[in-house]
Specification:
Length: 90
């Protein structure tokens, strides 16, 4: 099953990673995009990681959903988007 946007706001973490909620039906899945992956997707034109995330959120959510559908999840059931997941810009 693919993921859908979850209820809740993305949260910028120390170091620049962004955590964001997604849902698999009624199950909440916590997702993370690393600062390196976010930089690759959004570039350096944003003053904060949160603003960069907002600018490319749909692409990030699509990548997270694709990884989840393929079963590429972390030990805790969440999804992490890393630099290798986005290639040259997703």
């Amino acid at each position: 099953m693919s993921l859908e946007r979850g209820i809740g706001s993305p949260a910028e973490q120390p170091g620049g990673d962004v955590l964001f909620p997604m849902n698999d039906g009624s199950l909440r899945i916590l997702c993370r995009v690393t600062d390196e992956a976010l930089y690759r997707l959004a570039g350096a034109r944003f003053p904060t990681a949160k603003r960069a995330f907002d600018a490319v959120r749909l692409r990030i959510e699509h990548i997270a959903s694709t990884k989840y559908t393929k079963g590429l999840v972390e030990m805790d059931g969440g999804v992490t988007i890393r630099l290798l997941d986005v290639g040259n810009g997703g």
